[in-house]
C-alpha cells in the first residue's frame, strides 16, 4: 500500500493537469484573478473560474499533444457548452453572484511531448450561454 502511494505521488502530472496549470499562469499574466480551479459539483467540473475586471469568467481548458486530429477548441461542442452553462449558473447561484456579468472563455493548448512550453490560444467570449439558460448575461 505504501509503495503504491509513493509511486502515485511521484507520478508526473497528466497532460490535462499541466495544461490547466499553464492556462492559469497565462491568465494571471493577463491580469485575471483566479478564484477557483477544478471546481466540482454534482453536475460536473469547471476548469478555471477567474475574474477579469468586473466579469466572472468561466474557462474551459482543452489540452492536446497535437492538433492532427482536430483543434483542441473543437472539443467544446454545443453539448459541452450547455453543460458549462448549467455549471456556471449553479456556481453563480451558490455564491450569490447571479447579478454579476459573466462570460465563457476557451483556452486551447497544444503541447507536443518534446516541447518545453505549449502553444496557448485564448478565445475570449468563446460562446454564448447554451441550452435552457440562454438569458444568462
UniProtKB/TrEMBL annotation:
Give GO terms: molecular function aspect only.
Answer: nucleic acid binding
Note the CDD domains from the entry: PoNe_Nuclease
One Pfam family cited in the UniProt record for this chain: UPF0102
Which domain of life does the UniProt lineage start with? Bacteria
Similarity field: Belongs to the UPF0102 family.
UniProt xrefs under PANTHER family: UPF0102 PROTEIN YRAN
Protein name per its UniProtKB record: UPF0102 protein DSM3645_06709
Give the organism the record lists: Blastopirellula marina DSM 3645
